[in-house]
Amino acid sequence: MAATKIEWTDATWNPVTGCSKISPGCANCYAERMAKRLKAMGQAHYKDGFEVRCHPDALDAPLSWRRPQNVFVNSMSDLLHEEVPMRFVDAVFDTMVKAHWHRFQVLTKRSERLAEVARSLEWPDNVWMGVSIENQDYVWRADDLRSVPAAVRFLSIEPLIAPITDLDLTGIDWVIVGGESGPGARAMKLAWVVTLRDLCSSRGVPFFFKQWGGVNKKQAGRLLEGRTWDEMPMSAVAG
Fold first, then answer.
1. Residue at 196 is within a domain
2. What CA–CA distance (Å, rounded) separates 57 from 11?
């Protein structure tokens, strides 16, 4: 288990590492920066840096974590990357089915592949499925997500790099919004966040504000109009 400071989850599990850029939100990828550091530190799973690699030795890890947790799947990759064989995707889902006491949060930018394979996968109630959206040009990923028979469908609107003014929340159970952080971080405007917060409120969709981001994300904090927004579609304690 890898504990994490990601605000909307408890732990990360990376049976796949590495990825490749497919849209503007990928430009300053934190996982790519981290993979380079881990390679320099001699971490075995990152000996090839940010090249896509499957790790069969990591598949059973959640089965040994006895305390129920929220687990972000592949924080250092994308499970639906085109270089990840379908048999390995199936194996990851098999573990999530077996580890029923955890809640698994899967997130992808490759929503087209997700829509193609979703009906061939088993979707237990403890598997949440989300897609990333960074600006108005990629709201169509939510359409692909709507076709997935997951118990909870969520949007990760992070990094939010431009205003989103037309977003259909039909069939969406949760929205996370956050700014980009780290070197070269692109600024996020208050009005962009408030628009999405108000949309969620009007549609009854739980809203989670993760961070303002920036070069020093800790200093920028995560208060929005004087408070934190930590809404979840259900209890944050998996079980």
1. yes
2. 18
Letter for the amino acid at 85? P
Low-confidence ranges of the chain (pLDDT < 50): 236-239
Helix, strand, coil % over all residues of the chain, rounded to 5: 30, 20, 50
Q: What is the pLDDT, as a whole number, of residue 239?
A: 43
3-state secondary structure of 152: strand
pTM over 0.90: yes
CA–CA distance, 213 with 186 (Å, rounded to integer): 9
Token pair in block for residue 67: 């305390």
**Is residue 52 assigned to a domain?**
no
Distance CA 63, CA 1 (A): 10
Asked if the structure places residue 171 within a domain, the reply is yes
Separation between Cα atoms, residue 114 and residue 119, nearest integer Å: 9
The tokens for 61 are: 């890890």
Number of domains comprising the chain: 1
Rg over alpha carbons for the chain, rounded to the nearest Å, is 17
* pLDDT tens-digit map of 88-100: 999 999 999 999 9
Domain assignment of residue 140, given as a range? 109-233
